[in-house]
Amino acid sequence: MRPHVELIHEDDYVWHAAELVGGEGRAGERRLSVDEEDGSSSLRIDFRTDWGRGPGVHHADTEYYVLQGTMTYGGRRLGRGGYVHAPRGVPAEAITFAEGTRILHYREYGDAGFDLHAARRPGARDDVVVLDTEAMRWDAVPNPGPMPGLFIKYLRVDPVTGFYTRLVHAQGGWSDHRLAHHPCYEEAYTVQGHMEYNFGTLDLGTYFFRPARVKHGHFTTMEGGATWLLRSDGELHNWYTQNAWVRWGGEAVNYGGTDGGRMRWSQSAHDLGRGSNRRGERDLADLRASLEYARSQGAADADHVPHGHGADRSLLAIAKALDAARLQGGHGDHGHTDDSHGHTDGGHDHGHTDGGHDHGHADGGHDLHGPAADWGADPRSLEHPGERTDAGAHNRGHGRAWRQGDPVPAPILSSLPVRSRSRGRWDADGM
């Protein structure tokens, strides 16, 4: 599994000697994220000299994207925006990079191994894709969210797994006031521009790897727009959330006063009083404009309340549930602290198996507990059916296929992603 990386700038990574098996020349790599279980890696590579490798077969699904310089694949020379996808087990032609070239390099479901002059492997499918993405046109995203101004170039889509790689561009002024989570992972490297969102500032050279079901959003795009190379390991469905809150607590044992007591930590909007308070007036205006546009198109949506403002929704939810429990019935005046209703001594017995007048729950008498209050959905109803038993059960952020009509898996709170000192932040804005 890969850790949640959000948000980090490539300059905060150390350089390693590039692991490019079977090639000649020198190159260095920054390891943006790595899966130590299966070898999958997302890398930024700089070529210190001319570098080249002959034809052969990759052990992993492999992608190259040129940020600067030149790449030559099978005799075809590609500059900025040049892209190659070589599926694992499928013969690839010779490839070279000129000194000074900078690329993004991805390996999926396999290690860095490369077998020179090898034949096609049994079970290998698809063929190598070679693109000059600079020559491709931008298409409007069919479902761009609440506002127009989002564009895409599809580089490759796996018809079996749904894995896809694309370039995405948001125009200046494009914004989205909602939080979203997805059934698949999502990763991106910023190749141009500037955007603000709940995890920090997306600008040139920033990167994130976000496991499935981690919420993110509150996007606002600056002048000139922003562009990313974006990858997902499955079809991307958007499940939107507004005005999220989280609350948790515990029993203090050796702190919190002379006798301990119940301690509560809250990461709800009202308590933190942070998050969108750190966003400028321009950002907040863009988020409000996003909501207004969505409503003008007939979309159903809750009011957008910046975190740190308004009532604490978690406390309201608790109060409403308690009030519902009282209205539905319950213990009422059946106190359990005095002797008249004691369970171990005097007074009439509340036992369920022997004498005294019976307060049992199966055969008449009044129900001591009353109807249960509705505290929300059963967590198991918000999980993928195989989440606790399949091969990804050890990884809560493991992506899984989802189809319309299936239960929508609940989001995951990831409060401590790997992040930059300079670019990433974690606060109440967009939990």
UniProtKB/TrEMBL annotation:
It comes from the Bacteria. Residues 328-431 are annotated as: Disordered. Gene3D superfamilies: Jelly Rolls. Residues 331-369, 380-393 have a biased composition (Basic and acidic residues). It holds the Pfam family DUF4437. Signal peptide: none annotated. This is DUF4437 domain-containing protein. It comes from Streptosporangium roseum (strain ATCC 12428 / DSM 43021 / JCM 3005 / KCTC 9067 / NCIMB 10171 / NRRL 2505 / NI 9100). The lineage of its organism: Bacteria, Bacillati, Actinomycetota, Actinomycetes, Streptosporangiales.
